[in-house]
Write a structure and sequence with these properties.
The complex is a heterodimer.
Chain A lengths: L4 E6 L3 H10 L5 E6 L2 H11 L3 E5 L7 H11 L4 E6 L4 H9 L4 E4 L4 H61 L5 H27 L3 H6 L2 E4 L1 H17 L3 E5 L6 E4 L1 H17 L6 E9 L2 E8 L32 H11 L3 E7 L3 E9 L19 H4 L3
Parallel strand pairs in A: 1-2, 1-3, 3-4, 4-5, 7-9
Antiparallel strand pairs in A: 6-8, 9-10, 10-12, 11-12
Helix pairs in contact in A: 2-3, 5-6, 8-9, 9-10
Chain B lengths: L5 E5 L3 H13 L3 E5 L2 H10 L4 E4 L8 H11 L8 E5 L2 H7 L14 E4 L4 H19 L4
Classes of the chains: A alpha/beta, B alpha/beta.
Chain lengths: ~375, ~140
Amino acid sequence: MGAATRLLLIDDEEIVLDACTEILRGEPYDVATAGDGTRGLERVREFRPDLVVVDLKMPGLSGLEVLERIRDADPTIVPIVITGYATVSSAVEAMKRGAYDFLPKPFTPEEFRLIVRRGAEKRALVLETLALRRERELLRDHFAAIVSHEFKAPLAAIQQNLYVLERELAAVASDDQRARLGRVKARVADLLQLIDTWRRGSVDLEAVKARFAPVAVRVPVDKAVESLAGHAARKSVTLTATVPDPSPMVWGDQATLTEVLVNIVGNAVKYSREGGQVSVAVTVEGDDVRIAVVDNGIGIAAEDLPHVFEAFYTAQSGAAGERGSGLGLPVSRRIVEAHGGAVTVRSTPGTGSTFVITLPALGEGDPGTPGRDAAPAAAAQKEGRR
Amino acid sequence: MSERKKLMIIDDDPDFVSGIRAILDGAGYETEVAYNPKDGFAALKARPHDLLLLDIMMGRGAEGVMMARKIRKDPALKDLPILIITGIREQIAFMFPGQAVHPSFVALNELIEKPVEPDLLLERVGALLKAAETRGQPVG
């Protein structure tokens, strides 16, 4: 950025090249020259100039053709034309083809210096605009990830210190104080989880759709079961999955489908009692792949059932204990619907809930192969991290 | 045998560090901290350590990943056990399920998410130290 502006001169008259080089001596330019259009284009590739000053009238490749090819090669290069027969029409034609400015021959050193300086300023603006645009795109693409990290980092530090306090005060704190500390910890944990769900829910589904590819249903099922194995083991919940072999295929995005299963299976574990059972069963029914997530947990009250897919709705009537963020199910439904599928729920309070995800199956002739490992996903409990 | 194990912590968040350091110190480990990868690498080169606890998101991005790669290429440090403690575990876990971290990402011994419960932290640190000890000894 502090570096010299790179200027390429293309002209068939050696005397012009020499004179222009001489004019710019001592100024902050790094100058290269070429004696014809073909050589000039080669130099564009090697020298990577900021500015190109090109004579319109040259034998061989004409100045106008050179202009066009420069624009194709790198539209951020600022081209300036020199025109020997200073007719308005040739200048206009050059400007139409992307020239930034033109200089009629003969010109004075001062005129040349001025036009080159203006060109260099234009180049700096072009680059700056480009950099800003890139930054904006980066920010847009990663906004959720950046914001969630910024929120999570201080919360993680708080929670980490609460863990320590809890240990250090264990011997001296009263039951009341311990309970208070426990509630603070729980609220911070909720907030951390809410941020995760929010980030995942901020996925641009249109962009995800553009990446759709054949997915073996076994893959997201296995991933979800694996990532929840620790949670299940801590509650002594038996988590099993059965997937036909070979795995049914769907057209979609593996990462967001995994997200859906983590949310729904995660809920099943969350609302299970100690020692409960959660099963994930994949079947093919007609043209649909059906994923049923069944738990024998606390269930959902009839009055809550119609609302569970609404954002920020968390059941009031549920048993004490774990609470959801109110975002997991709405996010899941959006994702499943983007896949052309649907999610439904049945529940009996006290007996358990069944969530069913249906997705259009990919037919036999469709591309893609299921995962190599044919082992069922049920190894979850011993393999999982805790 | 009873010599205290030396743990290096590299993390740019002093508050988080104090939260894990208290747990590790309390368990009898000797801890050293660097708040950026550069100082951390220098400290690792200067003195022997038994284990590294490494943050991923430092500085201008995932500098912890670069750091781990650099350590794995260093002849003197390549066998140092690394425990990654990160706020972005779940993305990584989704990308590379079934293994601690995908080999094409960086070979690491373990990865846990921030915040980390004291018992889990101590269990992981203990397991990694033990595994390293077993590796270093002749079988039998």
